[in-house]
Design brief:
rod-shaped; 14% strand; 81 residues; three-stranded antiparallel sheet
Length: 81
Amino acid sequence: MQANDDAFVVTAIHAWSESMQKTATPPPAPSPYRTKAEAAEYIRCSVRTLDRLDLPRIKRGGRVLFHIKSLDAAMLALESK
């Protein structure tokens, strides 16, 4: 009798696992925007250096955000000098 109970539990868990995989929502796409600290880390400089670079930024309320494409473009422009 124990073997039948174990088989039932395993089957139930397997069915539940498959149903959860089908209904689970995918994780949200990562944001292309970075905070000052994240942007500085992304281009491997200090926050103070980032401020001095005067890169394009977006101000939303009290937050300052940088788009990854702008960071990449700025670094490419600095590279060619």
